[in-house]
Amino acid sequence: MVYGLFMNYEKFSHNSKDIFLVDMRKERNPYVSELAFKGIEKMISQNKRVLLLRNKKWYANWLMCRSCGHIHQCRHCDVSIVYHKTSHQDFWTDYVWLCHICKTQYDYYSHCQSCQSEDIFLYGMGMEKLVEYCTATFNVPVCVVDARKVSSQKKIETALDDMQKSSIVISTWILVQPPIKDMFSLVIVGSADGGLHTPDYTSADKTFWFIYEPAQKYTCPLIVQTHNPSHASIRAACALNLDAHTTSDTEYRKKNMYPPFGDFCMLLYKHEIEKSLHTKIDTVHKELLYLVTLYNMNINVYATPPLVYKMFWKYRYSIILSWQSLREFVDIVFSKLRLTQRWFKIDRQAENLF
Asked: Which of 74, 110, 171, 345 is positioned for an S-S bond with 99, CB 3.0–4.6 A?
């Protein structure tokens, strides 16, 4: 790790470019690292263009009370409500609180709904906040590109024109497939480790490609900002070492018997009444354990709540089946327990616990 007067980073040198891996745990600015800040200033002074990649489109992830720790959640779903800023003429304010699952909108809270404290704070950073920060800090034209702005040929032409007029372009992954060659002199990947915190056995693989794709397709320097600079997938991507990532990911899947070395099946059940949900899950869980014993099969069976416990007014619970091969056992389950008729949703090749 190299530490300068204003920055900390690790440099990966390649024939065509340099990739800088920044440890955001040591940075004071949550928006851009000091290395990225200096890079943006330099590009702007040379009339060059910078691309900031960010996949979260909202302004802030959640509203939290600093007195009691309460996070404001949707009444219908077990998720925090997300803060959006907008200047659309149809809204009478410049902000909207929204549940990204059921799309319910909420009024702005000036105090905590739990302890009534007014010490509440917006946490997390999306594209909207990044746009606000870059506009105020660097005082240059900022362009935002997402899927909605490139959904037709006419919109693509308009977006390209807007990018040509802007010094900073903030985009989702839409500008990586395909890349806009020779338009940018610096690419910054924000929150590169964000996907690692999801219960998904493909999260490390997705994180690798999140960094590797722009590193391969853009010829300019790349700055990767992360709170987990030691993670194998992040380091392999910065080193442009596809073989190392493939080996690491293969060993991880083989050790845990994830596909293609094993099967992973999820049985999901939903109910409006929480007690009824737990009763049904408990009954089916015991039935599955009985079938495992009856047919003398070495199958892992465990019940667990998914990442989002409540969604669209309904509580949710899962039963996970895993082993080297589940086909024969799942066929038995279908014929004996008739789970689809009991309102279970069955995902034979589940990738996550959502």
From this structure: 74
Instruction: State the Cα–Cα distance between residues 138 and 282, nearest whole angstrom.
Output: 57
Region for 69 from its dihedrals, namely left if φ exceeds 0, alpha if ψ lies in -120 to 50, beta otherwise: left
pLDDT, mean over the chain: 86
- φ, ψ for residue 37 (rounded to 5)? -60, -50
Any idea what the Cα angle at residue 9 is, between residues 49 and 230, rounded to 5°?
115
Of these ranges, 78-92, 196-210, 286-300, the one predicted with the greatest mean pLDDT is 286-300
**CATH 3.30.70 domain residues, the chain:** 263-347
Q: Which fold has domain 2-57+126-253?
A: Rossmann fold (3.40.50)
Task: Please give the CATH topology (third level) of the domain spanning 263-347.
Answer: Alpha-Beta Plaits (3.30.70)
Identity of the amino acid at 30 = P
C-beta separation of 40 from 138 below 8 A:
yes
Measured CA to CA, the distance from residue 348 to residue 263 in angstroms comes to: 8
pLDDT digits (tens, 9 = 90+) for 161-201: 888 899 999 888 777 776 677 789 999 998 888 788 777 88
| Contact indicator for 35, 229 with CB cutoff of 8 Å | no
Residue 5 pLDDT more than 80?
no
Name the helix (H) or strand (E) containing 274.
Answer: helix 274-294
Q: Rg (Cα) of the chain, in Å, rounded?
A: 24
Per DSSP bridges, beta strands 120-123 and 62-65 are antiparallel
